[in-house]
Amino acid sequence: MSIAAPQGGHEALDVNAVRRDFPVLEQTVRGKPLAYLDNAATSQKPRRVIEAIDHYYRHDNANIHRGVHTLSERATAAYENAREGLARFINANSAKELVFLRGTTEAINLVANAWARPKLGRGDRVLITEAEHHSNIVPWQLLCEQTGAELRVVPVTDSGELDLDAFEQELTGEPAIFAVGHVSNALGTVNPLEYLIPRAKAVGATVVVDGAQATPHLAVDVQALGCDFYAFSGHKMFGPTGIGCLWGRAEHLDAMPPWQGGGEMIKVVRFDKSLWNDIPHKFEAGTPNIAGAIGLGEAAAYISELGIDRIAAREALLLEHATRVLSEVPGLRIIGTGPHKAAVVSFVMTDIHPHDLGTILDHEGIAIRAGHHCAMPLMERFGVAATTRASMAMYNTTEEIDRLAAALTRAREVLA
User: Fold this and answer.
1) pLDDT above 80: residue 416
2) Which residues pair with 180 in a beta bridge?
3) Which H or E run includes 171?
4) CATH fold of 50-305, please?
5) Which fold has domain 15-45+307-415?
6) What is the DSSP letter of 249?
7) pLDDT of 381-403, one tens digit each?
8) Could you give the dihedral angle defined by the CA atoms of residues 98, 101, 104 and 106, in that order, rounded to the nearest 10 degrees?
9) What is the H or E stretch that residue 126 is in?
10) Which pLDDT belongs to residue 10?
11) Residue 3: pLDDT over 60
């Protein structure tokens, strides 16, 4: 995969110091120390992110861009500084290519409605993969229903990797859009974007990447990747909920009509015609999530200071340990066994429903996710209704994973 230059040196993370940055990890649940292993759903927030949001509301709370008083000027500066920092975080060419939105879901919907809908019609194809999150399936389904375009799907192999032969076959149909997740939320598979994107671009496809599961774990360089749009969410990368970003090439964003109308996204409003604001403001109608943007900027700075290479190295150790010890649990089968994975282990246990496992594990103070993970077609592909998913972050420990394995063994003794 294409990644930015390593940051933060090569020394290992001080995990105990990192854990002290996260107040929520200090608690007990049902009398047991919390082992939070549901990071693919949402990650925890470091103290500095919480404090940045608190500082805005305590000291700088005002609307942005429109006011000339001191609070508005400070709020505007903090909001736009966050945009600048996030642009650097993904190596965007310019901060004006970064649009603040509610998250990855809204970002993909924006691309589908403002970029793709005016261009597509009957006979066009939209290509996605079998491993996509619902937020990278349903917007394209709706688009195809509205335009007459055809939705095509690249299958995955038994190991959870994309079937590259099938991908190549789909490219012969010259899809107009190729939408793909950087990392599977359900399996942890890291897709080979360095191969997929140039191949799709070569047949004229616009490439949209769902990066929600990538930005907390991998260095992302949108210029090196060569995609057209890249979407990510704050709450997956130690930032607030309800905030995220769409990166798009400036020429695409300039050409796109606005999707929502209101204040801030205009230059002139008259009853006969309105003139739109410059990018990125053209796509940020109304008062935005100012505190959320500031918090997300702080989260990106936190990741950069820790060093994304050190985070990735720490999580690789956790994944190796989890794969090994969970594989030793009787009756447990891991779903998604590809060689290139983020720190996610999704599994089923013979004769035990994932929801029952989730409840039992909660009584042990262990937070995991049980369900279809907003990837129902992928669950169907593997012949299961749901899986249990342990998803790790750099603040997790091997001891927590050992607790998970021991609790699963006890659950089997009780339930199977």
Assistant:
1) no
2) 209
3) helix 164-171
4) Aspartate Aminotransferase; domain 2 (3.40.640)
5) Aspartate Aminotransferase, domain 1 (3.90.1150)
6) -
7) 999 999 999 999 999 999 999 99
8) -130
9) strand 125-129
10) 60
11) no
